[in-house]
Structures are given as structure tokens and as C-alpha cells.
Design goal:
It is built from one helix and three strands, in the order βββα. It has one helix at 64-67, and strands at residues 2-6, 9-16, 21-26.
């Protein structure tokens, strides 16, 4: 699974068991999720397809690292 942003909207990209295919799920539309113990194996990043022409890499560390690190 991976996250991707396109036109300001975040998507969770992963395997859809119902459709038996890679799907791009709009994060804003996900109402609930659950973790299962079923591994998703046998898939490659190539199945995601070509990124959109406006895709760009996300660089840097998230603020979480510095804001919420416990004091030593």
C-alpha cells in the first residue's frame, strides 16, 4: 500500500479484494478501515501504473519527528 497526492487530494493505493485489482481510494471518502492478518503478497509496484504527469516526490521528514519526540 502507498499514499499518493493528486490535485490536492490524497489517495490510498492498494489491493482491493472485492475487485481483485489495484485501486486508488480517495482518503476523504474512507469512512472506516480494519487491519487484517491476511498478507497481500505477489503484487508489485508496477501494478499501480504510471504516475500522473503532475506527480512529484514528497521530500523531507514529517513534523512528527521533531514535535512529538519525547524529551530525553
Amino acid at each position: 500500500m502507498l499514499f499518493a497526492s493528486r490535485n490536492g487530494q490524497w489517495h490510498l493505493v492498494g489491493w482491493c479484494r472485492a475487485r481483485e485489482a489495484i485501486r486508488w481510494f480517495a482518503v476523504s471518502r474512507i469512512e472506516r478501515a480494519s487491519v487484517t492478518s491476511t498478507p497481500c503478497t505477489g503484487h508489485t509496484v508496477d501494478e499501480v501504473g504510471e504516475p500522473p504527469t503532475d506527480a512529484r516526490a514528497v521530500h523531507g521528514q514529517p513534523d512528527y519527528d521533531t514535535k512529538y519526540r519525547p524529551e530525553r
